[in-house]
Amino acid sequence: MPLRTIRSPRIPLEQPARETDKASLGDLIREVALSIADAQKGLDASSAEMVRELAETRVEVVSAIRESISSDGSISYTQDKPRSVSLLEIGVMPTFYQFAQTVVEIQMDLKVVETESEKGTKSQNKRMFLQADTAGIRFERKLNRDVSVCSKVKATLVPVPMPLRIEPVRTTTDADAGNGG
Amino acid sequence: MQNDIYKRFGARVSFARGVEGLFLVVSSTGDPEPRVRVFGGQIVMRLNKTKILARLELAKALELLKEPGIRKVGGVHLDVERYKRFLASQANAHNHL
Asked: Per DSSP, what are the bridge partners of residue A154?
């Protein structure tokens, strides 16, 4: 039975992929940061969609109910005509979530490597960079059965106020003022 | 049915318990109220035939989202200041009638 995902992954799980034993440290950190940014983007898109849902959902609101007490003590009620308003107008707002803290622990070997030519000689424009290697770590885990050698992700989500910029500004004017009423 | 993929990785997922939140529940097939009640939710406001506002625990809301026929479960809150401004504007409009 296929797993039901809330949203499609960036790289489809069905897509064939080959494990690489090394990567540039910069690329590795960038990929991790992009993954968190992508998750945050998904959360924001979901909340923005909720804004639209709330704006489109209309309810009937009775703005005033008058209570009248007559001289004989009987009480009667009259109410204003119900008015259709959106949930957003009456103050029902979507909850936005934010990654307050994300800790990513990745076990890896770091190597300082430098570029070289096809002949095996150092080129004139030689460049040194850091390379991350996880294959050795994985091998050690397999060989020594050490499960403490693993990667960890710890993410904390907190609700945050709705961004002010997308909140519509409400102004109230007296429509009858110009009619002398 | 709760997705247990995190268990296969030995991960722990925890939610702050005991605090219920307000959620907009939208169904694509009909009245979502029975499903919300199954997940221990309380109906706060019935908006139309397919939408309700309900109080639910976050973990239950996420489970409800996976139910067939449930199109959306989104966290919402009532902005009391905005609600007061709305009531004030209605009172002003009423006084001018």
From this structure: A103
Cα–Cα distance for residue pair B39/B6, rounded to 1 Å: 21
Inter-chain CB proximity B91 and A63 less than 8 Å: yes
**Cα–Cα distance between A60 and A82 in angstroms, integer?**
6
Tokens read off for A88: 């957003």
Structure tokens that stand for A13 in this block: 């799980």
Q: How far apart are CA A126 and CA A115, in angstroms?
A: 6
Neighbouring C-alpha atoms within 13 Å toward the C-beta of A165: 1
- pLDDT tens digits for range A159-178: 787 776 555 666 666 666 55
- Nearest Cβ partner for B79 among A4, A91, A174: A91
Q: Which residue type does A143 have? A: L
Q: What is the DSSP letter of A49?
A: H
Instruction: Please state whether the predicted TM-score (pTM) of the whole model is above 0.80.
Output: no
Q: One-letter amino acid identity for A47?
A: S
Kindly list the residues from chain A whose CB atom is less than 8 angstroms away from the CB atom of residue B65: 6
d(CA A149, CA A103): 16
Write down the ipTM of this complex.
Answer: 0.73
Residue A170 C-alpha, separation from nearest chain B C-alpha, in angstroms: 9
